[in-house]
Specification:
Blueprint lengths: L1 E5 L9 E7 L6 E2 L4 E6 L4 E5 L4 E6 L6 E3 L3 E7 L36 H9 L18 H9 L23 H16 L2 E9 L1 H18 L5 H15 L6 E3 L2 E3 L6 E3 L1 E3 L2 E3 L2 E2 L7 H17 L4 H4 L4 E5 L18 E5 L3 E7 L2 E15 L5 H16 L2 H4 L3
Parallel strand pairs: 12-16, 16-17
Antiparallel strand pairs: 1-8, 2-4, 2-7, 3-6, 4-5, 6-8, 9-19, 10-11, 12-15, 13-14, 17-19, 18-19
Helix pairs in contact: 1-2, 5-6, 5-8
Length: about 400
């Protein structure tokens, strides 16, 4: 008895994946629920496990192939020892349907068409007999000629670059292509703007130093800055709901839940797992959730559910040494907070110049629904929460 290995459901709106890597070879024994093949979607990499124990007898989709949900990946022969697989016979060619006859436009009369239409046909070197004529008695109008010119075959693409032994050409992963598409879509769609502020990190650094050991001993996780920023951001989002909203067609959707995306860098690209209902979580719960996402991201175990949704995103470029940047929106969200490197700088405190650990903050936002006043106020409220963390504890 044989068992088919099929592409599982990949998640909402995801219909296709790429075979990234086969973990077993033809003829190898497999155990039930043992990972067989890795599939890469435009969001995550996932493993397909064996539905039955036996021997992998056929691989129907090689590495690099694109497969649809329900598509056949391979076959498992249940039970029995591994046998040398017979060479699969070439599949019989499928009958090719006859190509439909090309549609021929009705004869048109260029000679009796207007001078504007004739000029366009002449300049664009169009074949007048193929232009559908909408004018009276088969005459080509100016609009007909313009439409035909717009459909002209584009110029041939430039010749590919010659190979250079000092270079390496690698095909884009599906995840990287999807990241590129989403980021470019954000630039093309949103009226994106960035506003800046800076925050004195002295208070939260002192807080962390004071309670570092006792916090880790009690909760089993380190007290980081991210949970404090998540809590401060939520307090600001509650005051300024437009920053937590999104545009849906002609509507603005105001969200009364706070699912905070935390950007995580991986070898395959940036991913944004979501801490759901973060407003209902304590500092330790947020730190544990972020720590768990970091491990899953490094191991390639993030699921579609981990990455779906999110009402607001925080990106910490400071862990890589970034001093200042303009983060790009994570659609369909309308704002993203950029944290940066904490660096000692001279600042004026009262009438004195003191050395303080300072961090630049950046809020990129969609100006279509968030006004400058709201964006600036958001960063001011965030700054107040970080510089005086007691405000977060008493909900101010």
């Amino acid at each position: 008895m044989t068992t088919e290995i099929k592409v599982p459901t990949l998640g909402e709106s995801v219909t296709e994946a790429t075979v990234a890597r086969w973990l077993k070879k033809i003829g190898e024994a497999v155990k039930i629920d043992e990972p067989l093949v890795e599939l890469e979607t435009d969001k995550v990499t996932l493993e397909v496990n064996a539905a039955a124990a036996g021997v992998l007898t056929e691989i129907s989709a090689d590495e690099g192939a694109n497969v649809e949900v329900g598509g056949l990946l391979g076959m498992i022969a249940e039970g029995g020892a591994a046998a040398a697989p017979a060479k699969a016979a070439a599949p019989a060619p499928k009958p090719v349907a006859a190509a439909p006859a090309p549609t021929v436009a009705a004869p048109s009369d260029l000679d009796r068409s207007g001078p504007a239409a004739r000029k366009i046909v002449d300049e664009q070197k169009l074949d007048a007999t193929t232009i559908p004529a909408t004018g009276k008695d088969g005459r080509i109008t100016k609009g007909d000629a313009l439409q035909a010119a717009a459909k002209q075959v584009p110029a041939a693409p430039a010749a590919p670059r010659s190979a250079d032994p000092r270079e390496q050409r690698v095909k884009m992963t599906r995840l990287r292509k999807r990241i590129a598409e989403r980021l470019k879509d954000a630039q093309n769609t949103a009226a994106m703007l960035t506003t800046f502020n800076e925050v004195d990190m002295s208070a939260v650094m002192a807080l962390r130093e004071t309670y570092r050991e006792s916090f880790e001993k009690k909760h089993g996780v380190r007290l980081g800055f991210m949970s404090l920023f998540v809590k401060a951001a939520i307090a600001a989002l509650k005051e300024l709901p437009a920053v937590n909203a999104e545009i849906d067609g002609d509507d603005i959707v105001y969200k009364n839940h706070y699912d905070i995306g935390v950007a995580v860098g991986t070898e395959n690209g940036l991913v944004v797992p979501v801490v759901r209902d973060a407003d209902k979580m304590g500092f330790a719960e947020i730190e544990k959730a972020i720590s768990a996402f970091g491990r899953k991201a490094r191991d390639g175990k993030l699921t579609l559910e981990d990455l779906s949704g999110g009402t607001f995103t925080i990106s910490n470029g400071g862990v890589y040494g970034s001093l200042l940047s303009t983060p790009i929106l994570n659609p369909p969200q309308s704002a993203i907070l950029g944290m940066h490197k904490t660096q000692k700088r001279p600042v004026v405190i009262g009438d004195k110049i003191e050395i303080r650990p300072m961090m630049y903050l950046a809020l990129s936002y969609d100006h279509r629904i968030i006004d400058g006043r709201e964006a600036v106020t958001f960063l001011v409220r965030l700054k107040e929460g970080i510089e005086d963390p007691q405000r977060l504890l008493i909900d101010l």
